[in-house]
Amino acid sequence: MHVWSIANQKGGVGKTTSVVSLGALLAEQGHRVLLFDLDPQGSLTSYFGLNPDEIEHSAFDLFMQKGKIPENVSEDILVDTSVPGMKMIPASTALATLERNISQQEGMGLIVSKTLAKLWDDFDYALIDTPPLLGVLLINSLAACEKLLVPVQTEFLALKGLERMVHTIQMVTRSQRRELDYMVIPTMFDRRTQASMKSLKTLREQHQGHIWDLAIPVDTKLRDASREGKAISQLDGESRGARAYKSLLKTLLSA
């Protein structure tokens, strides 16, 4: 199984859209794909029509097991998505209580790694959607992944958020004594505005060697796909957004 985390310590930069879009494209290629929602806001869970406030089984259950991942984890917690071949571990808003209740307990940073180990032979790819906060959930995601994708909106405030994320990456690298392979993904790019153009130029200057050559453009079809609970490739595979994510996936698979 290949494990990719999609993370940024700023919200609204396209994390969930990237998880769904890339996951669907992998599934369409015939891969078995798992989406893992670790964000208490449950955007990924809501994307596919589930309510994070009411869901019976979720990622929260795994943390409540305190590291003892049940053998039947796939039966209890996996749900189908609208994309054939792609399943999801949904989020519950109860995840927001973890920092207060169990974050200091030993082994809490490896719950996601242990869960994926139980599912290792069932999936080819796992994509993890993360909260925009440094804490036990984000640390779990970074500890579990082999590749980190950092979507960054091409506007000034998002660039400041990226600085915090890079600092976190450096911290995790030191603590785990391993290099974390990461790629910055410029998103919501609008070449008609100077703000977008300048932000993209700054990103490329400051993150050489860790940034995708292209950018995910502003595309209303991405919003339409979210509203319908579909991936952009299902709604309109020739849209600008779909073509951009296809190009991104090609880059990721060739790296």
Tally of alpha and pi helices: 12
For the biggest β-sheet, the strand order reads: 3-4-2-5-1-6-7
Helix content class: 40-55%
Low-confidence stretches: none
Named at the architecture level, the CATH assignment is 3-Layer(aba) Sandwich
Short description:
The protein is of the alpha/beta class.
Describe this structure in words.
- This protein is an alpha/beta fold and 255 residues long.
- The chain has a single domain (2-254), classed as Rossmann fold.
- Helix content is 44%, strand content 14%.
- The protein contains 12 helices and 7 strands.
- It has helices at 15-28, 43-47, 59-64, 73-77, 98-101, 111-118, 136-144, 156-176, 194-206, 220-228, 232-235, 240-254, and strands spanning 2-6, 33-37, 79-80, 86-89, 125-129, 147-153, 181-187.
- It has a 7-stranded mixed beta sheet, with helices on both faces.
- It starts with a strand and ends with a helix.
